[in-house]
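Structure, all two chains, one model.
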Amino acid sequence: MASPVEQFRIQELVPLKLSENIDISLTNSALMMVIGVFVALLFFWIATARRTVVPGRLQSCAEILYEFIANMIRDNVGKEGMRYFPYVFTLFVFVFLGNFIGMVPYSFTYTSHIVVTGALALTVFAVVTVIGFARHGAGYLRMFFPKGAPIATAPILIPIELISYLSRPFSLAVRLFANMTVGHIMLKVLAGFVVSLGALGAASWGLGYLGAFAAFSMVAGITVLEFFIAALQAYVFTILTCIYLNDAINMH
Amino acid sequence: MEAMDLKAIGAGLAAIGMIGAGIGVGNIWASLIATVGRNPAAKSSVELYGWIGFAVTEAIALFALVVALIVLFG
């Protein structure tokens, strides 16, 4: 049987090598990203093609999604944060679709690769740091030393705050990637139990069938859990982006 | 012992780190339930922090998992 990490293998679909070190082949990961972007484009295009004052079903979905992110930014960043709404909204839709496309059997979860989540997280980190320095100048360095703390604690506090600031992109990337990877490995391992216990069925007076049924129920339950996790991780990724934006815009 | 056996032991040891995250996540939900039990009106404002706290604490368990995977396959 294939190993549980087999499903994360990247395959070249259209080989395209510019030179020895530059490889821009279309892989299954890239294809899924393109599909994700097209699904988002198509959805918002169709949903907002015929706009009415009383929204129809599709338009309501788009409006609910818009309001959800807009409220998240208003609550966590404030009015000024709405300037960055397009970025946050794009992030949410991209991660959300990545997680959900991955739940389709035989597809590929692009958010289960740390290259993808790492790039997203590093972009968030760069954007937030640039906004912070652009708005506050050198004053942004006060981030690393809380107001009102005695000056004697500086040698301890500053390194701690610096490390916690620099570890943000790392934890943001690893959280999303690990959640997706673990979920899919777990599903694969449990599905493997169904096959191997079912094969033992006749030889063990039906006990194997019982075990296979139990494993199959587990797979069904965990699939539901994975759908929940997929939505939750997209939400967590965006809300942490909002919280970092808030730190940069209204310094604490 | 073969290298593969030692790798399996190492991965198992790395997974011990998840104990801390388990305690942490349990703490978050316990205090969230206690809060909502005492003051049901606070549910909507507290729930959000519960999920954020859960995600941040869970990340620690995932770091342990990443270490285990690196030990196994790296």
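The two ends of chain B are 19 Å apart (CA to CA).
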